[in-house]
Amino acid sequence: MKKLASPLYLVGLSIVIAFAAALYAWPLIDKGFERLEEWRYKVATAPLAHYDHLLATVKQASVSDGPRLFGAKAAAEEVLRSRSLFGKDFEYPNAVYYSHIVLGRINVREGRLDEAEAHLISAALVPVIDARAPNVQLAEELLRRGRRDVVLQYLDTYYTHSLTGRRNMVPIWKKQIRDGRIPNWS
């Protein structure tokens, strides 16, 4: 009869095999941890990247016409719905402002001038921090359709709440609008 290996020998052999397997597998395990960390980073930053994309989309569309303007409708609506997700972001007020401008301009093209006016006033109530503001595209489109009162209200409201803009030009613009002209916004 053959003698079986001693239990101590089997334990030692098991430890050596486990150690060899660990040495062989460590690069795979380490790579897995690296991938896990990359994945965690991507998951953590994905909302920010998406938000940056939404902000860029509505900013560009606010001064565009045609397909780019209509293509930004979903982005503008998402910005207005996602306050709980992005509300504390420094740029969020700008995104809300430009979203109202985009949606208002789309409403003008669809003939819904009352909704466009509501978006113009909503935009004016946002404390914008963008140095390029105010965006007067929607205001000018409403002026061209005879909606002078809401544009005057926009100018008054915007410069009450905004942190930027050309305040010294407001009296000149308002006089031009009251005289029935479209102001030179620059």
What does this structure look like?
By secondary structure, this protein is mostly helical. It has one domain. Helix content is 72%, strand content 0%. The protein has nine helices and no strands. α1 packs across α3, α1 (7-61) crosses α5 (92-109) and α5 runs parallel beside α7. The chain is rod-shaped.
- How far apart lie the N and C ends? 104 Å
How many domain regions? 1
Which spans have pLDDT < 50 for at least 5 consecutive residues?
Answer: none
| Overall pLDDT metric | 78
How large a portion of the residues is in β-strands, by DSSP E?
under 5%
Structural class assignment: mainly alpha
Topology:
Layout: H1 7-61, H2 67-71, H3 73-81, H4 83-86, H5 92-109, H6 113-124, H7 137-144, H8 148-161, H9 170-178
Helix pairs in contact: 1-3, 1-5, 3-5, 5-6, 5-7, 6-8, 7-8, 8-9
Fill in the keyword field for this structure.
rod-shaped; mainly alpha
Structure described in brief:
This protein is 72% helix and 0% strand. The protein has helices at 7-61, 67-71, 73-81, 83-86, 92-109, 113-124, 137-144, 148-161, 170-178. The chain is rod-shaped.
